[in-house]
């Protein structure tokens, strides 16, 4: 018989892609990504008892991951930003040898990072091809409102992406 910890570990393992996508959307570095991933898993475990299975685990996981990421993002915005010297130099001398597809993905993520927290969440769920009903449930809005907001965000995202192209 599986323990609650085993069940949790299996669910997180099966759905960890969700956490990575949320972290990539809100973190600016690999280190931040790792820290945010750990914080999200910690928050998932802390609130696992509140998961009532009224929705899919992935929907609940998105909600917890997004709330955690947005909270950390807001705290980070208030903190003083510093750059490590090694990081600065690595960016200065980095060769641009990326494939077109990777460049497009990078442009997309740069553009997404210019959206508000809620808009980022909407885009992330939309790119995951989640149905509007699930997006609405995850974000906590009506399905109709989700459709309207996503259409507006698509227009805004296209405008933002034009500056990188």
UniProtKB/TrEMBL annotation:
Signal peptide extent: none
Family matches, as Pfam families: Sigma70_r2 (PF04542), Sigma70_r4_2 (PF08281)
GO molecular function: DNA binding; sigma factor activity
Domain RNA polymerase sigma-70 region, residue spans: 11-78
Domain RNA polymerase sigma factor 70 region 4 type: 107-157
Record's keyword terms, sorted: Sigma factor, Transcription, Transcription regulation
Superkingdom of the source species: Bacteria
InterPro entries: RNA_pol_sigma-70-like (IPR039425), RNA_pol_sigma-70_dom (IPR014284), RNA_pol_sigma70_r2 (IPR007627), RNA_pol_sigma70_r4_t2 (IPR013249), RNA_pol_sigma_r2 (IPR013325), RNA_pol_sigma_r3/r4-like (IPR013324), WH-like_DNA-bd_sf (IPR036388)
GO BP term (any one): DNA-templated transcription initiation
PANTHER family: RNA POLYMERASE ECF-TYPE SIGMA FACTO (PTHR43133), RNA POLYMERASE ECF-TYPE SIGMA FACTOR (PTHR43133:SF45)
Similarity remark: Belongs to the sigma-70 factor family. ECF subfamily.
Descriptive protein name: RNA polymerase sigma-70 factor (ECF subfamily)
């Amino acid at each position: 018989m599986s323990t609650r910890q085993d069940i949790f570990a299996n669910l997180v393992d099966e759905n960890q892609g969700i956490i990575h996508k949320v972290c990539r959307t809100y973190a600016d570095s690999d280190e931040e990504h790792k820290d945010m991933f750990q914080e999200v898993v910690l928050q998932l475990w802390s609130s696992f008892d509140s998961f009532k299975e009224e929705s899919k685990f992935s929907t609940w996981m998105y909600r917890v991951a997004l709330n955690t990421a947005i909270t950390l993002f807001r705290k980070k915005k208030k903190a003083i930003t510093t750059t490590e010297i090694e990081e600065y130099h690595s960016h200065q001398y980095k060769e641009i040898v990326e494939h077109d597809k990777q460049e497009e993905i990078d442009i997309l993520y740069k553009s997404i990072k210019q959206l508000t927290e809620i808009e980022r969440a909407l885009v992330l769920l939309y790119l995951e091809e989640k149905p509007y009903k699930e997006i609405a449930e995850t974000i906590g809005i009506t399905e109709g409102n989700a459709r309207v907001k996503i259409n507006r965000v698509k227009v805004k995202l296209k405008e933002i992406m034009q500056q990188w192209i």
